[in-house]
Amino acid sequence: MIEIFHNQKAIASFFKDNRNFIIDYKDFDISNSIALSLPNTQKIYLYDYRFPPFLESFLPEGYLYEIFKNILSKEYGRVDDYLIFSLLCSNIQSRVQFQCNLQKSIDFPNFDIEEILSNDTNDTFNNLLQTFLNKNAISGVQPKTIALLKEKEKLDTKEYIIKTWGDEYQDLALNEYFCLKAVEKAGVKTANVKLSKNNKFLIVEKFTLKDDGSFYGFEEVLSLMDKNKESKYDGSYEQVAKIIYSYATNKRESMIAFYKTVVMNYLLKNGDAHLKNFGLLFDDDFKNIFYSPVYDVVNTVVYIHKDKPALMMDGKKIWHSKNTLIKFGQKSCLLSLSEAKKFYRDCFEALLWVINELEGYLTKNPDFKIGKMMLDSWKLSLKEESTKELSDDIIRTWKNY
Question: Model's pTM, two decimal places?
Answer without folding.
Answer: 0.93
